[in-house]
Amino acid sequence: MQSLQTLERGFLVLETIAKHQGKLTIAQLAQQLEMNRTVIYRLVHTLVEMGYVHLPDQQHLSISAKILPLYRGFEQSIPAQSQTVLEQLSEQTQAVTAMVLAEGNECVVVKTACHSSSFLQLSYRLGTRHPIGVAAAGIAIACTYPEQNNEDQEIQLARQQGYAFSQNVLQLGAVGLFIPVPNRHLAIGTMGFHEIEIEKHLPLLKQAALNLMF
């Protein structure tokens, strides 16, 4: 099916502005996207008129609060208490925590939490995507689907153990421990640098996953 080029470009503009919130001018946006400046100006003007983008200093582009109802609509697809559960888990484990959601052939980071006592923290940004079956998060998500023929050994092992562990996959030095959330294509986990206390984190992760079911 043929895509609508103007609509596609409009969303690309919106995504790029959000990624560089308050840092790009229209000229810089055109350069970033390698598009004609006149086309970019028209797209930005439309988004400004609709209220999704604003120019607080008449130069740099920012996403406006009008985007929030769209996000709230999406949030209805994940457990309402997700952020609270992740924050509690982060304090209990003293690690970065995250929730990922299956979307097509990818898993997407939809919630994160960081404890407040660390000077150095690993960042797993909201909206980060990578293929299902890759890294601990992707492997745990794969386990939420029925077993497939010729599955990777990592996924088979995660099914047997009830959790997925990975190291140095998405970032050098980063380790992750994720478990699937029962009856949903979701997974939650903890992340850190170089090591994770699996025996300590695993029961806390299991309890957090149960809390997400209610």
Automatic annotation (TrEMBL):
Pfam families: HTH_IclR
Top-rank taxon: Bacteria
BP-aspect Gene Ontology terms: negative regulation of DNA-templated transcription
UniProt cross-references to InterPro entries, sorted A to Z: GAF-like_dom_sf, HTH_MetabolicPath_Reg, Tscrpt_reg_IclR_N, WH-like_DNA-bd_sf, WH_DNA-bd_sf
Gene3D superfamilies (UniProt xref): 3.30.450.40, Winged helix-like DNA-binding domain superfamily/Winged helix DNA-binding domain (1.10.10.10)
SUPFAM superfamilies: GAF domain-like, Winged helix' DNA-binding domain
TM region(s), chain numbering: none
Gene Ontology MF annotations: DNA binding; DNA-binding transcription factor activity
PANTHER family, per database record: HELIX-TURN-HELIX TRANSCRIPTIONAL REGULATOR, ICLR FAMILY, HTH-TYPE TRANSCRIPTIONAL REGULATOR RV1719
Name of the protein: HTH iclR-type domain-containing protein
Lineage, top ranks: Bacteria, Pseudomonadati, Pseudomonadota, Gammaproteobacteria, Moraxellales
